[in-house]
Amino acid sequence: MTLIREMSSGSEFVGFYLLREFEVKQTNGTPAKDYFDIVLCDASGQLSAKYWDVSPAEKSLFAPMGLVKVQGVVQLYREKLQIKVNRIRLAVEQDGVAIADFIKAAPIAAADLVHTIQRTASEIADAELRGLVDYCLAKVGDKLSHYPAAKTHHHNYYSGLAYHTVRMLEIGDFICRQRPFLNADLLRAGILLHDIAKTEELTASLGIVSEYSLQGRLIGHIALASTWVTEAALKLGIPADSPKVVALQHLILSHHNLGEWGSPVQPQTAEAIALHYIDSLDAKLQMAEDALGALPEGEAWTPMIRGLENKAIYRTVF
Amino acid sequence: MTLIREMSSGSEFVGFYLLREFEVKQTNGTPAKDYFDIVLCDASGQLSAKYWDVSPAEKSLFAPMGLVKVQGVVQLYREKLQIKVNRIRLAVEQDGVAIADFIKAAPIAAADLVHTIQRTASEIADAELRGLVDYCLAKVGDKLSHYPAAKTHHHNYYSGLAYHTVRMLEIGDFICRQRPFLNADLLRAGILLHDIAKTEELTASLGIVSEYSLQGRLIGHIALASTWVTEAALKLGIPADSPKVVALQHLILSHHNLGEWGSPVQPQTAEAIALHYIDSLDAKLQMAEDALGALPEGEAWTPMIRGLENKAIYRTVF
Amino acid sequence: MTLIREMSSGSEFVGFYLLREFEVKQTNGTPAKDYFDIVLCDASGQLSAKYWDVSPAEKSLFAPMGLVKVQGVVQLYREKLQIKVNRIRLAVEQDGVAIADFIKAAPIAAADLVHTIQRTASEIADAELRGLVDYCLAKVGDKLSHYPAAKTHHHNYYSGLAYHTVRMLEIGDFICRQRPFLNADLLRAGILLHDIAKTEELTASLGIVSEYSLQGRLIGHIALASTWVTEAALKLGIPADSPKVVALQHLILSHHNLGEWGSPVQPQTAEAIALHYIDSLDAKLQMAEDALGALPEGEAWTPMIRGLENKAIYRTVF
Amino acid sequence: MTLIREMSSGSEFVGFYLLREFEVKQTNGTPAKDYFDIVLCDASGQLSAKYWDVSPAEKSLFAPMGLVKVQGVVQLYREKLQIKVNRIRLAVEQDGVAIADFIKAAPIAAADLVHTIQRTASEIADAELRGLVDYCLAKVGDKLSHYPAAKTHHHNYYSGLAYHTVRMLEIGDFICRQRPFLNADLLRAGILLHDIAKTEELTASLGIVSEYSLQGRLIGHIALASTWVTEAALKLGIPADSPKVVALQHLILSHHNLGEWGSPVQPQTAEAIALHYIDSLDAKLQMAEDALGALPEGEAWTPMIRGLENKAIYRTVF
Amino acid sequence: MTLIREMSSGSEFVGFYLLREFEVKQTNGTPAKDYFDIVLCDASGQLSAKYWDVSPAEKSLFAPMGLVKVQGVVQLYREKLQIKVNRIRLAVEQDGVAIADFIKAAPIAAADLVHTIQRTASEIADAELRGLVDYCLAKVGDKLSHYPAAKTHHHNYYSGLAYHTVRMLEIGDFICRQRPFLNADLLRAGILLHDIAKTEELTASLGIVSEYSLQGRLIGHIALASTWVTEAALKLGIPADSPKVVALQHLILSHHNLGEWGSPVQPQTAEAIALHYIDSLDAKLQMAEDALGALPEGEAWTPMIRGLENKAIYRTVF
Amino acid sequence: MTLIREMSSGSEFVGFYLLREFEVKQTNGTPAKDYFDIVLCDASGQLSAKYWDVSPAEKSLFAPMGLVKVQGVVQLYREKLQIKVNRIRLAVEQDGVAIADFIKAAPIAAADLVHTIQRTASEIADAELRGLVDYCLAKVGDKLSHYPAAKTHHHNYYSGLAYHTVRMLEIGDFICRQRPFLNADLLRAGILLHDIAKTEELTASLGIVSEYSLQGRLIGHIALASTWVTEAALKLGIPADSPKVVALQHLILSHHNLGEWGSPVQPQTAEAIALHYIDSLDAKLQMAEDALGALPEGEAWTPMIRGLENKAIYRTVF
Question: Where is the secretion signal located (chains A, B, C, D, E, F) (predicted)?
Fold first, then answer.
C-alpha cells in the first residue's frame, strides 16, 4: 500500500485511506455533472483528490472521517500533487483496517500519556493545588487522551495536547531540580492546566480540528481556563482570592508572555517565567521536528513554518 | 481659606487640608533631625510639603488621610511649588470640617450614581443577564459608591468608577436608540460590569488609590471580572457555556480592544465594539475635561496627559 | 425576481440586474472565442458572471453601470458562487426598472440627509465657522447627496458619506449636551468637514467607487480638506492663522488619531478627541451592522472584516 | 576670554556671554533670598549658572537674550558643570561686543545662503512652479535668513534652515545630473519648500527656538506648508488641482516618509523619494558633524543623539 | 521582432527569446499529455508561455537559459498575458543572436563598471584599508562584473551590483567634497564592500538569481562580508581588532540601519550614517527609475513596489 | 560585620567593604571642600556613600576596586539608603580579608565551571566542531573563568558567563536526550560559543563591567563571535563555507532570535531554535532568582526588572 508521503506524479496505486474531507460538487460544463472533492489522508500526510465519474447511488454512501479503499493515479495540478480517483468504496470490517492506523498521532500511546499526567497530578504535594488540578482534569474527561494542541500550529494531531503536556512536565522537573527555589508544585500545576481549555476552544475529532467553538472565539482558552480554576475553587471551598488560586491563574493567564500574543497579564512569578519558556521551547522544537520528519529524503529545507517566524528549517546533516 | 489650586510662590496661608501622604524622615545633617515629608490636598488639588521643626511629641500624632490645620508658606523648589509648614495640628470636632469636603469627587452625588446603576440593572429585561449583573454588583457592595476608576489615568477620584459607568450608560442608551439592532440588555450589562473588578484590582480609600492588589497585578481587572461572571453563573445555576454568559464575558474581556492594551480577545460582537468605543470616548473626554478644569485661568495648554497619547490639550476659546 | 443575496448553487433565474463591471475577454482555446466577464449586482449584493456565447453584434451593446435583463443559472466555481448567463439584454424603458432600485444605499433618503446637513451648518452660531463650513459644502455641490464614504471600508454605498455625517452629528449633539464645556459649534463644523474631501479623493458613481483620484493618492482627503479650509478663509477674508481656522483644520487633520492611521498631528483639543472617537464609534458599528445585515438567515458569523481588526462578527442572539 | 566649551571644574574666568535664559527665583531658606537662575552661552556652547547675591536693584536690570559681562567660577554640581557667578553686569556699547559673535550659526553667511536660495528659485524653468515657490519665499520674508531648522534636533542655530536648504539643493542638483529622468524643477521646488513652514511652526530668535506656535502644534509645518501652496495657487490663478500643484504638495506632505514620522501620505513620485532621502542624508550627517565638532579634544564618543536612533557617535581617527 | 514589453492580447509573432525558465509538465486529461511550462524573456521583460503539442523528441532538447526561436500568439489568461507557443526551436549559430542581447542589464558596460571599481579601490590612500578592499574584490573574482544586487528588490539584473556600487561611489565622493570631515577612504571602502557578499548569498547567472545559497540563508550577506574582512586582515597580517578593521566591519554590519532590517549594530560613525543613506537613496531611486522605465507609454502609475513601502509610483509629467 | 543587604536607616556599623567606585568631588559651598563620592559593596549588594571630612593626605590613598575598612552610619537620602562615612582606611594584610569574599559571584567555583566547559568541549565527537570550539576557548584564555555575562542584565557577576554556559549545557543535554533528532555536538558547540565574544565586548574586572569596548560597540558580541569562527576555520584549515562552519556561525548569529534583539538572521535549524529558547529560559530565570534572592525578608515584590519586560517579580510563598 502506498503511503501518501511517498506518492509522486504519475504513480498509480490501490490502498486504504481516511476520507478526511468530503464534498459533492458540480462541474461547470453543461450539463453539470457531480464529482467528489475530497481529501485523503493517512498517518504520513494528506492529499486532495477528485473523483469524476460519480454515479447517483454513490453520492449518499460517503461521509467525512470514514475509511475508504481507493484506486487512483497521482497527477500534478497547479504545481501541487493531486489524486485522480478511478474507483472508491467504503472499507468494510473484513478489510481489517482501523482508523487509528490512518491518523497522525503522538509517538507515545494516549493511555501512557494520560497515565503520566494523572500520576503527576496526584503527586502534587499541596492538597489545594492538587484539588484544583484534579477538578479541571476531571472536567475535561476523555478529551485529555486524544485532543490535539492546536488546529495547525503545533502538536496538531491525535493526543497532541497530552504529548505536549508530558514533555513540558519532563522539562519542568529538570528545571526544578536545577533551580530548587522554584515551587515545583505550582509549576507542575501550571503546566498541567496551561492549555487545558483547548479541549473546549477547539472542536476536534481523531486529533483533527474542524473549527473553533463559540467559547474558543469569544473567550479563548487562556481566559477560559482561568474561569475553570475559579469554578474549581468554588466547588472545593477554596477562597478565590487565596494566593494559591491567584498564582495558578496567573500562570495560565500569562503563559503567552505578551499582550499581543494573547496574555492579559505578563509573567510576574519565577514559575510563570519558567512556564512560558518551557512552553515555547517544547512547541517550537516540535514544529521543527515534525516539519523535518515530513521532509522527503534528500531535501534540505522544509516549507515555511508560520509558528517559527515564518522561516523554513534546514536539516542539519554532517 | 486658600485653595491649593490658587496657591502661588510666596503666599502665606492658614487653613484645613487633608494629609494625603505622611512620612517622618531625617535630615542629612549631624545630628540628623526629624521632619515631616507630607502631601496636603483639598478638592482642588495637592502639593507636597515639609515641616522641619518637628518635636518628639508630634511624631506620633499624625497619620495619612487625616484632616489637619496648617499655617505655612508656599515656595518654589526645583521648579515646583512646595509648602513650608510652620505650624500643623490635627483637626478636631469643633473645627467643623468634614473629609468629604477635601477630596476630589465626581460632580454627581455617590448615592445618585449608585441609584442610577441599580435602577439600570433592574431594568435589564433578560432575567439571566440581570441576575449575573446583580450578583456582581452585590459582590462589590459599598465600594461601588466611592471607588475611583483608576490610579492616575482617568476618573481617579471619589465615585469615579460609578460616574464613568453612569455616563457610559447614557451614551449606550443613545446609541441603542440610534441603532435598534443592538442588544440593549447585553450592552447595558457589559457597561455595568466592564470595570467592576477595579474594586478588587485597586486598593483605594476616599477615591485615592494607594496600590494595586495581588489579584490586580497577577490577574488584572479584565480577567478577574470574567471569573466573577463564571462565579455568578454557578451560583445562579446558569450554564457557564450558555451564549449569554459567553457574550457577557466577551464584552468584558475584549473591552480594551487590543492585546497590547490588555484584552486577551478582540471585539467580535457589535455590542463589544460599541462598548469599547463608548468606554474610550467617555474616558478620553473626561481626561481632557478634568485637565482643562484644573488649568489656571489664562493658561492655554494643560500638562502632557499620558492617557491622551502623551499630548497636552489646548483650551479652545473663541 | 431572485435577489442576488438569495441565490444558491443550482438555482435558475430570470431578472433585472445592474451591470456593475463589464469586460469582453477571450477564451484560451483555438480559435479563441469572445466572452463577457461581468459583475451583476442589485441592492442585496453582487456576483461575478460569465456569458460564453457572445455574438459579434452583442459585443458593443453593453457598458458598465447599465441595467440588464438576465436569464441564467448559479454555479459553484472554486468554492464561490458564479452566474452562468444564458441570455442577456439591455433593459428598456418599458421594463419599468430604475437604477436607484438596484444599488445599495443609505437607509435614509439622500434629500433628507442633505437637508439635515445644511440645516446643521446653518445653525452654527459662530459666523466665521459657519462661513467656512458653508463654503466647503458649496464646493462639493451635488456630490454631498450621493457619495459613499469609502471604497470598501465602511458606508461604501449611495449617500454613505452623508449618512455617516448625519449619524455623527446626532452623537455629537448628545455628547455636547452631556459635556457642556465642549464647543458645540466647533465640533459640528469638524464633523461636517472631516471627510468632506472624500468627494475629491474618490471617483464614484451611484455610490460605487471606481478608483482614487490623483489628489486622493498624492494628497489624501485629510490634507486636502485642510487646504479647502485655507481656501475658504482666503475667500471669506478670515486670517488663515486665526484660532478658529486653526482649530477647525486641527480637527480635520487629527481625526485619524495616529500618524500610522494617516493623521499628521494628534488630537490636542477636547473637540478633536470627541471627533475621533465619534467617528470610530459610528464607522465601526456601521461595518458590523452592514455585515450582520448581509448575513444569510441562520448563519452566526460574518466574513472577516478588515476594518474591524480583521475579525469576523458574531450575531448575538438570545 | 574663556569659551564655554573650554570651561572645566574649578576654572575662574571673566568674559562676555549671551544671557540665553534668565529667571529670578528664591532660595528655600528663611528668609528666602532672591537669586538668578540663568543660562549663559556663546557660539561654542552653553552652561547653566547661578548668581546668589542678588541686590534688589539688580533684579530688574536683566532680560533674556541680552549680552552680559560675567566674573565667575565653574563648579561640578550633580555630575554637571555649572557656573557660580560672582559679578554680572549688562554689556554696554563701549564693550564693543556684538550678539552675532555669541550665537551658534551656520558656517556660511546668512546673506549668501539667502542669495543662493533666491537664485535657485529664479532658475526654476517652469513658470508656475517658480511662481509658487517665489510666493512662499516672499511670505516668509526675513525669517528665511536667520531661522533654525529645529528646536534641538538638527540645524538648531542661526540660519540653520537656510543652510540645510542650500546643502540639500547641492545634493539634489548632483542627483539630477546623475539621473536625468528626474524632474529637476520639481525636486528643487520641493527642497525649497519642504521645511519652509518651520518659520511659522517655531518661535525663534537669533536661531534659538523658544517654543512651538499654536499653528505649529495644531497643524504642524508639513500640513501648513501644503496650505501655503494652495494659497499661492489661488493668488496666482493656478488651479489647485493642477498636476503641478498636486505634485509639489505631495513632495511636502510625504517628505517624512512614514505616517509615524508625521507624513499623511507616503512618497509616490521619484522626486518625493529623492527629497526624503536627501533630507535624511543631510540632516543626519549634520547632527553627526555638529556633535563631533562639539566633542572635546581627546574624547572619542559624543553623547547619545536622539535623532540618530539615540546612538552616540564615534570619531573615526586613523 | 516583437519585444516582450510591446506584446498585447491577440498579437502573433515570430522571434528569438531567452528561455528563462523551462519545465516539462503533464495535462490533467486522460491520457495525460506532456507540455512545456516556460518563461520567455528579453531585455524588455518576461512572459510565461505554454507549448502544448510537445513531441517526445522535443522533450530533451531544451534547458533553462538557452536562446530559442518561437512562433506564437499572445492571449489573456486570468487577467494576465500569456504566450501560446505554436513552434519552438533552439537558436543556432547561424541565427546570429547573442544571449547578452536578451537579458536586462545595467546601462553601463560591465567592464567599465569593474574598471571604475578597481580604480577607486586603488586610489584608497590608506594602505591597510586598500589591502582589505583588494583582498575582498579579488575573492569575488569574475562575479563582480555580472552579479545582480538582489533577487527582486533592486538592481536585479546583469551587472546590477557593480552598477549600484559605482553610483554610490559617485554620491559618496560628492558628499565627501561637501563635508570634508568625513573619512573618504573609509567611506569608499565601505561602499565597495557593503554588498560584496551578495555574490555568495545569491546564486545567479546572467544577472538572474535562481536561489539563495546556504550561506546566504544561514549567515546573510551582512555578517558574511564581515567575516571576509576578518579573513583579509588575518591574511594581510593586520590585527583584527585594529580600529581600521573594526570601523570597516562596522560600516558593513550597520548599513541596513536597524535590527529589523538586518543590521546587528546601528550606525555609530559619520561614515556609517553616510553609507546607509547613500545606499537607500540609490536603491530606492533605481527601483522608481526601473519601474517607470518599464511602464507602457501613456500609463501613469507603476504596479506596487515592495521596496518602496509597497506604493505604486506616479510618473511626474508636466 | 554588617552585610550591606542588612543595612537600614539609622544603623551604625564598622566593617570591611570593597570600594567599587571612587571619586573626589567638591562641595558647592564657599570655599568648596573636597569629599569622596563612593560606592561600597560586598557580596550581598552595594550602596553609595559620602565621606565629607577628607584631609588632603587622604585624597591620594584610595582607588577603585580596593578593600577598605569603614566606620559609618546609614541614612535615608531622596528615598534611598546612603552611607555617611565617618572613618575610612585601606585594608592591610593583617586584616586578613580577601577581595574574593567581597564580590558577587556565581554559586559554583570558577575552576569547576571552567573544568565542566573544557570537558564538554573535549567530548564533542565531531573533530572539526571540537577544533573550532577549542580554538575560541583558547583565544579567550583566563577570561573564561571570571567574566560576567552582562553589564547589568543577567549573570552580571564573577564567573557569570561560565555559570550561564554550564547551566545551558545541562539543559541542552537534557533536551538532546528528550529529542534524539537534534545534533548534540552542534548544540553543545553553539552553547559554548554563543556568548563567548562577551569577553571582548565588555571590559570587566572581578565580574564587574566598567564599559563596552570599541569592538563591543561597533561590532557587538554576536557578529564578533562569528568572525572568530571564521578565524578558527582558517587556522585549522577547515573551509569557511563548509556546512559545519556555517551551521555553527548560524547558531551564534541567530541566538537573539529577532532582528530587533540583535540577530542579523533568524533561527533556521532545530539546534538554533533550541539554543535561543534554552538561552532565554536560563537568563530569565536567573534574573528572577537573583532578584528574589536580593529581596529583603518579608517583602513580596522585587523592583522592576528591565530584562523581564520591566515587570516586578512576586515571591511565590505558600
Answer: none
- By CA distance, what is B252's nearest residue in A? A219
Q: Determine, yes or no, domain membership for E176.
A: yes
**What band does F222 get if pLDDT is binned at 50, 70 and 90?**
very high
Which of residues A73, A102, A131 is at a domain's end? A102
B151 and B237 in a single domain? The answer is: yes
Which residue is it, cell 528561455? Answer: E19
F83 and F147 housed in the same domain:
no
Residues from chain D that touch B314, judged by Cβ atoms under 8 A, are 214, 217-218
Q: How many Cα neighbours within 13 Å face the side chain of F188?
A: 25
* pLDDT score, position D94: 93
In a domain, B308, yes or no: no
Shortest alpha-carbon distance between residue B37 and chain F (Å): 11
Within 10 angstroms of residue A106's Cβ, the number of other Cβ atoms is: 24
Q: What is the pLDDT of residues D219-257, one digit of tens each?
A: 999 999 999 999 999 999 999 999 999 999 999 999 999
Confidence at B301, pLDDT banded by 50, 70, 90: very high
**Cis peptide bond upstream of B31, omega within 30:** yes
Q: What is the ipTM of this complex?
A: 0.91
Residues D137, D161, single domain; the answer is: yes
Indicate the residue of A32, A217, A218 with minimum beta-carbon distance to C75. Answer: A32
A163-187 burial, b at 16+ Cβ within 10 Å, e below that, comes to bbbbbbbbbbbbbbeebeebbbbbb
Q: Is B128 helix (H, G, I), strand (E, B) or coil?
A: helix
Measured between alpha carbons, how far is D266 from E309 in angstroms, rounded to an integer? 8
Q: Which residues are E170's β-sheet partners?
A: none
Report the residue from F181, F277, F285 with minimal CB separation from A179.
F285
D277 and D139 in a common domain = yes
In whole angstroms, give the CA distance from residue C7 to residue C83: 9
Mark whether C153 and C277 lie in a shared domain.
Answer: yes
Q: D76, F25: Cβ pair inside 8 Å?
A: yes
* CB neighbour list of residue E53: distance below 8 Å, 6 or more residues apart: none
Q: Which residues partner with C4 through β-bridges?
A: none
Q: Which residues of E touch D267 (CB under 8 A)?
A: 308-309, 311
Query: What is the DSSP secondary-structure string of B239-302?
Result: -TTSHHHHHHHHHHHHTT-SGGGT-SS---SHHHHHHHHHHHHHHHHHHHHHHHHTS-TT--BP
The CA distance from F214 to the nearest CA of chain D, in Å, is: 9
> Where residue E80 sits, what CATH number does that domain have?
2.40.50.140
Q: Same domain for F74 and F186? A: no
Q: Does the pLDDT value for residue F79 go beyond 80?
A: no
Within-domain flag for C27: yes
Residue C29 has pLDDT above 80, yes or no: no
User: Could you give the angle at the alpha carbon of D251 between the alpha carbons of D247 and D254, nearest 5°?
Assistant: 125
Domain count, chain F: 2
CB D195 within 8 A of CB D161: yes
Tell me: do F262 and F219 sit in the same domain. yes
State the residue for C-alpha cell 537558436.
Answer: E91
Residue-range definition of the domain harbouring residue F277:
110-290
- Within its chain, how far is the Cα of D17 from the centroid? 20
Last residue within a domain, chosen from D102, D133, D155: D102
Predicted local confidence at residue F118, as pLDDT:
98
One domain for residues E163 and E282 = yes
pLDDT band at F30 (very low <50, low <70, confident <90, very high): low
Query: Could you tell me if F103 and F206 are in contact, meaning their C-beta atoms sit under 8 angstroms apart?
Result: yes
Is F247's pLDDT higher than 80? Answer: yes
Contacts of B223 in chain A (CB under 8 A): 223, 226, 249, 253, 264-265
Residue D302 lies in a domain: no
Low-confidence ranges of chain E (pLDDT < 70): 28-30
Q: How confident is the model at residue D29 (pLDDT cuts 50, 70, 90)?
A: low
